[in-house]
Amino acid sequence: MTRIIAHLDMDAYFASIEQQFNPGLRGKPIAVTGKGNRTIVTTSSYEARAFGVRTGMNKYEAKAKCPQIIFVEANNSRYTDTCKWFVNLCRKFTPTVEVFSIDEVFLDLTGSIKLFGPAKQIITEIRKTLLEQKGITFSAGIGPNKLVAKLLSDMKKPNGLTEITKKEIPELLGNLPISTLCGIGKKTEKKLLSLGIQTCGELGKADPAILRRYFGITGNALVQMGQGKDNRPVVPVEEAPSPCSVGHSTTFDHDISSKEILKAQMLRLSEMVGRRARERNFSGKTIALTIRYKDFTTFTKQISLQTPINKTRDINAASDKILESINLTQSVRLLGISLSNLVNTPKQLELFTEEKKQQQLTYAMDKVNSKFGDFTLTWGSLMPLENRAKIISPAWRPEGPRKIEF
Hints:
The protein is of the alpha+beta class. The protein starts with a strand and ends in a 34-residue tail after the last helix. It has 15 helices and 12 strands. The longest helix is centred in the middle third of the chain and has 21 residues, at 259-279. It has a 5-stranded mixed beta sheet with strand order 5-6-1-7-8. The chain folds into 3 domains: 8-137, MutS, DNA mismatch repair protein, domain I (3-Layer(aba) Sandwich); 169-226, DNA polymerase, domain 1, CATH 1.10.150.20; 245-382, DNA polymerase, Y-family, little finger domain (Dna Ligase, domain 1, 2-Layer Sandwich), CATH 3.30.1490.
């Protein structure tokens, strides 16, 4: 049986929410950013996009494109709350809802049409409720698989809806550039272009043996993509595989040369990483420290331990050890810590008094911070640090180990 898959992509998501929250921003060019001068544009309104403002620009670039632009500091709790609400809305029509990112979902409607009518009718009902309740819109694509559905949702923006059948796929893909397919990045595109493959139609007709020579086993998948074939299921959040790592990073407002200041920031990152790992009973044997210098040179150094860890002080001690082994040649712009090589470790009571006390303290802090937000209870040495607005990671999910409260 042919599947019916829909991809819903919110239109200018963060900016749309801010414009609904503050009516004075409606119809104006705005850009949602983090806090500080070094932040980037995470989303711009369509009014700003008309001037060339794009995601990833810094404030100065955005201002040069649109002198009248209004910068709005991100309010992540609004965006995450809306995403959770939207996922629950979609679950009224199908239990198979995959959160692709904070503003994108896939729905498997194959079994829903008998209850709720044609796919277009279901999407129209979801759209109507979202607009009435939240005042925002999405663009949608409906097709026989995830690859095609996502491609279609980009075709009519904003507030568009495109649907095709399996038979119409060859005509759709024939002359489309290969870059339009989700999963083909800049490097892959460059290689394919060097082989004379420019369109999806040409990719679908390519010799798999030749592509395997350049891309390994991925060569077979690329040919399938060019043909519009995709057997991947829509995976609900609760069935998603465990993460390969848990990590956090921060970009500083000013370059930092002092290792003591860097260590204070590392404690903050260690607490964020540790708490997320502990929430899902994960521990990890590998700690990685990522450093980006002021000239944007970036490198990662890691160490592996005999015993998996998830306590803040253990993660921090390991990252401190890595930092001490590095001879900093420039001031630091960005710092990141990640925990990988994960294993599942159910909570166990420590045997020794001091360890037991530290464990109880950690669990108590986790409980308070999970309920009231990060760093409601925190280490004394972190108090002077600025509580800066964070940009949401693309890995964020409304449930599971990738969930981060704001």
